[in-house]
Design goal:
This protein has helices spanning 12-25, 41-44, 76-87, 108-126; strands at 3-7, 28-32, 68-72, 95-98. With 127 residues, it is of the alpha/beta class. It has one domain. The protein is globular and about 45 Å long.
């Protein structure tokens, strides 16, 4: 099943627009709240074999400071179409990832840190 997992980082307007676009394309849209950033990607997507992780009492979930869009279950052609639509609208999201066997067990916070580090390395190489 095609799914988009989205952390809005406070951008409620874009979240609603992405949800509408997802519906038009027949893609399941999953919004992630700040309190869920310590949960595994597989759990957030509702995948079998993943369950909610309990945080220790008074522990804060990992901080995710930017929007993150995670794509699951799409073929290359459908993904290209979706990304083209996002680029041609005001719905572009700076940090995007595709669910893989490698990252499905990561928390959203872990994935955010990895994406941020990759972007910093890419920008460093451009200079």
């Amino acid at each position: 099943m095609e799914k988009l997992l989205y952390f809005a980082a406070g951008n409620r307007k874009k979240e609603m627009e992405l949800e509408k676009l997802s519906g038009m394309l027949g893609i399941c849209f999953v919004s992630v709240a700040a309190m869920q950033t310590g949960q595994q990607i597989g759990f957030l997507l509702g995948l079998e074999g993943f369950s909610k992780q309990e945080l220790p009492p008074f522990a804060m979930p990992p901080a995710v400071l930017e929007e993150v869009l995670i794509i699951s279950g799409m073929t290359g052609e459908r993904m290209d179409s979706l990304l083209g639509m996002l680029r041609s609208t005001s719905l572009s999201v700076p940090l995007k990832a595709v669910v893989t066997p490698h990252n499905v067990g990561w928390t959203l916070g872990d994935l955010y840190r990895e994406l941020s580090a990759e972007r910093a390395e890419f920008e460093k190489r451009l200079r």
